[in-house]
Design goal:
Rossmann fold, 248 residues, 9 strands
């Protein structure tokens, strides 16, 4: 079970600070040169400390938007910034390095490494990001911080040395969350992170994500089909409205 948050949950950052964590302007994207336009976004800004809920029907471009923001793909036109850096001007290798430092991902399919233990999966991002590794070491011993996050997310010490293949789907999803949070990257991107959790634990999971994001001064972009969660966030983005390609 998830641990009950120690303080009552309250919505935060109703007036977001001005520091921009992610910014898109004049962005157009299609998967193939002569294929249909998938995204057409005039402008989008996400500020430091915000908790943003992204909604839209299947095919509206939610996952593509996340890939653009994280620099996994680049647009055919327009600008995508992470912090002060225009990722569209970087090589693929430099985008990978920036993403390792700047973005924590909770993938819909988890992307855990089956031959690694729970603890090894959680600490894996530190092998690719010296910046995140330094943040963790500044807080103390690396394994200690990983175990703290796993404990907060409801995984007992006896589970932490096991292979991730020994865990339930819901437990694996929590491992993926701990991995994304470790080292406090500025931006946490969560793609359907509650899909494997039952109704009673979803809101508790979101509250814990919020607390950990606040603790590390992280910004959260959260995609979900579960509209009951939208009320918990600072604001929501509707891809049907934001993405002009969705109306073509």
């Amino acid at each position: 079970m998830l641990k009950t948050p120690s303080t009552p949950f309250e919505k935060v950052n109703q007036t977001p600070p001005q520091a921009t964590v992610a910014r898109l302007e004049g962005v157009r994207f299609r998967w193939k040169p002569k294929g249909p336009l998938v995204l057409d976004i005039e402008k989008l800004e996400v500020h430091r400390g915000e908790k943003v809920f992204i909604k839209g029907p299947s095919g509206s471009g939610k996952s593509t938007l996340l890939s653009l923001i994280a620099g996994v793909v680049v647009p055919e036109a327009g600008q995508v910034q992470l912090g002060e850096i225009d990722v569209t001007k970087l090589s693929g290798a430099r985008r990978d390095a920036l993403r390792a430092d700047f973005v924590g991902f909770i993938f819909q399919m988890f992307n855990l490494i089956p031959y690694l233990s729970v603890l090894e999966n959680v600490t894996l991002p530190l092998a690719f990001s010296k910046e995140r590794e330094a943040k963790v070491k500044a807080q103390g011993e690396t394994a200690g911080e990983a175990k703290r996050l796993l404990g907060r997310l409801g995984l007992s010490p006896d589970l932490q040395a096991r292979s991730v293949t020994d865990l339930s789907i819901g437990q694996q999803q929590r491992v993926a969350a701990a991995r994304a949070l470790l080292g406090g990257p500025p931006l946490l991107i969560a793609d359907e992170p509650t899909s494997a959790l039952d109704f009673d634990t979803r809101e508790a999971f979101i509250k814990l994500l919020f607390e950990e994001c606040e603790r590390a001064d992280m910004t959260l972009l959260f995609v979900s089909h579960d509209g009951t969660l939208e009320r918990l966030f600072d604001r929501s983005l509707d891809l049907k409205t934001l993405n002009r390609a969705a109306t073509l």
